[in-house]
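NADPH oxidase 4: structure, please.
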Amino acid sequence: MWDPHGRDSLRGKALPKFFWLSLNVWLFGKTFLLYNQGLQYYYLHQMLGLGLCISRASASVLNLNCCLVLLPMCRVLLAFLRGSQKVASKKTRRLLDKSKTFHVTCGVTICIFSVLHVAAHLVNALNFSENYNEEFVTLNAANYRGEDPRKLLFATVPGLTGVIMVLVLFLMCTASTYAIRVSNYDIFWYTHNLFFVFYMLLMLHVSGGVLKYQTNLEEHPPGCFNPNKTLRQNLTVPKAFEELFPDYTTEPFPEDPLVPEPFVQNRFMRVCSEEPKFQSHFPETWFWISGPLCLYCVERLYRYIRSNKPVTITSVISHPSNVLEVRMVKDDFEARPGQYVILHCPRVSALESHPFTLTMCPTDTKATFGVHLKVVGDWTERFRDLLLLHSNQDTEILPIFQQRRYPKLYVDGPFGSPFEESLNYEVSLCVAGGIGVTPFASVLNTLLDGWKCYKLRRLYFIWVCRDIESFRWFADLLCMLHNKLWQENRPDYINIQLYLSQTDGIQKIIGEKYQALNSRLLIGRPQWKLLFDDIAKCNRRKTIGVFCCGPNKISKILHKLSNSSNSYGTRFEYNKESFS
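Here you go.
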């Protein structure tokens, strides 16, 4: 169905990918024609044929994607752009939220064109061996005609580095699949860090200078007439003499269709003044990847220096349903609601670190910030055991002399996320699924400190959980915010809806302490279509920010509904949590 706002769901999702695919195909085709019709590659093309064109065209696409795949991983740069006034457009800032998608797209493109590049070079290795050019020896990669092509693959720097790069890329790609990331995140983490080995091999790979181009086109136009070599071939030799000396057999001058038209004038071939000279290309890949690679390395060094000092853990609180809250302080640490940090505990893992959304941000009056993490994997289990080893489940703020008993914890960040925009809309719809409530907790904490300084004037907060105990994670926060808004005569500022998707243990429903939440607790799942229609009806002709952090099923439904049209002139802009 056509959307008058130009936000058709299928078209909206397909356009960026189609644009990137078109750009890569255009670059591939442009490079293919250059090597297929370029005069400087005439003799090399005669040896290798289409293998030359395909290998170089795919290499140009690989250069582009290997250059850009690192930029989405520059978290500090993205956070700076998001928080700076230079990116004032909300649409432009939303594009920054697609950094992970762009990174994955570049990675998939690298895999596809690597297969094409490898296949073309396998053909090239065979052609170098079979089509050995005895006239222009410097043009050959093989040492003699009929040389085993496997020597070119395993006994040369370009060949050997290429083989190792294929193995590294295979490990990185297979370990990046959803099944591996979910079942064993450690495998994904360690294999993905092989990218540095990949880039070092790439810089060696392109320095071999296997493919050469002609440098003296003016003195030796391709297909030109060389009197010193062709005079003997054009002499008329008796047939009997040809049988005795087959090497002197006369053949007509080849009319190669690949001889460029500018060098054929009035049916007369230009005369060569010297032999052709060949030279290896300067490694263009260095130009492509040196900038992003240096930028990434500088950023990683900056992040290492910034996070080198461990934080001070002030409290560890164990919540129901295997959720752990860690509160910390750190000198000169500043963060905005919706941002996330990366935690690194050397006693848990020397190299591994994980991102967690801030549920509490430091303010002018308090320096404490915190995260909530759900214990679901090996890393979080070991981290929980270390933290709770010397504290009880109900421990609050500990005395200073007891803080040394906690393991050293390093915090890298903060980094930007889409949820920073939730306070920049007049109306926002925040949907959380289970532990996906964490990015909204920092927003709610910020509103508790003061809401009048922000653009936000109405917040719809939807939280879906499987068990009733999960609501206790932030029940106190929700009640305090509710009471504060009632005291300030703004009860309509926030609309809280809690959904319990499973009714097991319903008798343990929140008691008198959280009476304000009991009336907002519903059994079942939200009717998303009715919910969107009701919000659109109450906010006619407004732009509503939709923020989701939860299961993919809910995310897809909200994305589809946000892109669909309504009769009230209300526009929904969809945002989704995505750690880059």
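Notes: The two ends are 33 Å apart (CA to CA).
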